[in-house]
Amino acid sequence: MRGPMNKGVPFGLRIPLIAAALGSTIGAIAQEPADSLDFETDLDEIVITRRLDSRRKMRDSAMQSELLTSAELTRAACCNLGESFATNPSVDVNYSDAASGARQIRLLGLPGTYVQMLTENIPAMRGAAAPFGLGYIPGPWMQSIQISKGASSVKNGYESVTGQINVEFLKPQTDQSVAVNAYADHMGRVEGNAAGNIHLSDKLSAGLLLHGENSFASHDANDDGFADSPRVRQLSVMNRWGYFGKNYILQAAMRYLGERRKSGQTGHHAAHVNEPYLIDISTQRGEAWLKNAYIFDADHGGNVALILSASIHDQKSDYGHRSYDVIQKNLYASLMFERNFGTLHALSAGLSLNMDDYRQHYRLIPEPAIAPTRLDQAENTAGAYAQYTFNLNSRIVAMAGLRYDHSSIYGSMVTPRIHARWNVADPLSLHFSAGKGYRTPYALADNSYLLASSRAIIIEPHLKQEEGWNLGGGLSGTLYPFNRRLEWGVEYYYTSFINQTAVDLDRSPMAAYIINLPGRSFSHSAQVELTFRPIDDMNITAAYRYNDVKMDYGYGLVEKPLTSRSKGLISVGYTPMMGIWQFDLTLAITGKGRLPEPATDSDGSPLWNSTYRPFPTLNAQITRNFRHWSIYIGGENLTNYRQRQPIIGADNPWGPAFDATMIYAPVHGAMAYIGFRYTFTKY
Amino acid sequence: MRIRNILTAAVICACSLCAAAASPVEAVFTVLPKMHCENCENKIKSNLRFEKGVKGVETSIPDQKVTIKYDPDKTSEEKLAEAFSKIGYKASVCHDSSDNEVPDVTEK
Fold this sequence. Notes:
By secondary structure, chain A is mainly beta. Chain A is built from 6 helices and 39 strands. Chain A is globular. In chain B, a hairpin with a 4-residue loop joins strand 2 (54-60) and strand 3.
């Protein structure tokens, strides 16, 4: 029997213990957030920190980061990454259009393209994979999610402007287990997941993750003839390996994903339509990565790590008679050196290489007789970075990083970023960050959702590289009124773009202009948050965020359309009877916002309102935990709020007024779901 | 009158049942290997909570103690120790302060 009784420390714990022992800055391998290790340690002494929650602020880090553990992800259906932020006040997830199901994250009031997405600390969901990428990561595969706001570390590249979101998958080196999960909702969507891992020796372990989903029905609750959500069929499999030797650590994974997504005028409600408008998107994706670390000085966290990653993303999209097909290939390599110098100083330095290749065929004019146009784009970027961290007993933590990159298209880039945190005392912590980020725009890959409209798509010939600064800071702390824990936080971030690629929907209701923004563009985002435990088994989070996002398309500063000015959220979790029961309730109020300049009909009446009003959404879930089982039932959007006219001109999708991209609220109404999880762990 | 009698009988029955149920008692355990992190705590809590008669589980990493509140009519310290062994821990009942010293078996 392998286990703690005869081995001292179980394999599953011992491996991350080794990694954590090498320090928080080890990078390639041990840069994983300490979601399974809520302590700081070195090889000689275990030092326990305080007990933490399923969603926790990482006050030991110079960056403003929070960690969502797997426990937090069981508070809602969380079928995939895009559905995992329902209980989170910082991250919004919006649909890009009302038909294809494409979603994007919003952080600090800005689109997800300015958030660097990472899986296992490797850049992911880039370019063509971004529009549907949030659906590519099944919820039950995730061990944790780490959200960093503002300027991020320079280790992962120059791409983040407003923050980073890193997903850690289930690890093969944890306790051997088999987990199965199934989910079904009343809209006809079913999902199944399976995960298992095995320890082949004391050092070598392997894991297998499987996911399948299918939507069996098309619903059209608003009777506009269009399916409220797409019918998605997805199959995904990942095989991963871990080797943890004394001085050498290796993690490797391979993954395949196949997805077919159909939407538009489908189903019985559109049976009478002679020439239905259909959206059909098929995706084949393969990826593989390898992380190696050689530990040359364990006492000082000294290691050299090499990360290699490759992916190919083949997507064919038809939106009515328009099409966009893309094959995106990516190669990424990163070589890192890290070492602590005494207890106060740590240094990380490295080299990186990124190669992107896009082979695209598109037809923007909705005429099937017109042959698609071919557009090839490629960019190779080589870079180097250095990052210094000062850590005075986790009381004062400061981090300064600088990287230089050279792009084959845009030339040189210099990316400075600094972070500082002062944990004055338990009730008060101050943090500050400033930094720069860059991003290469791919007009069609980034904005393929625009094809779900009749708007002419006009792309400026030479799009500049996007470039922006982010500055932020805040106060936070923990108080104990009435002997009950109260965590509080106030923060503010300012983002300003030097160059930005913008989608101008205001200039004409018949066109979408993808342009180099000629004027200013900025975002102010302020958030206040309280988390309180009124009784032992209850946790209440209340938060409010205000966004002021403005852009100048060349005719004066205007509010960015389809961006809510505020968001309020109250989330209550109650886990009585030692957590055997779990009740979760989240109410979010999304604030008002602006819609692009409306078109007018023959009478001169606007086809849609120029603003939208605040709306509430309510999610609730009840979970019953058994020793190996959990059963959960829940509901999403229980307030049944639906956007009144999600698709403009839905009665004539081949006409000039058709537009499915004017989406700001849920399309489908209240939704009920049920699911179970089974986990057997061998200790 | 009849309803009042029924209610009175029900209240007497409920009180008798409450009186008959033994009040929970506490046992404090030390475990080997030591608890290091929340993962260790969760492993203990999420398994011990399903043992028959267990009413509450509290863990303390600084003290290296697991406090279990249980119904003595339904389980015992021996059965609880057995439950610990199923998840890979050797548990000993902590009777006095001398038991507080737990040898560190962490691999170094």
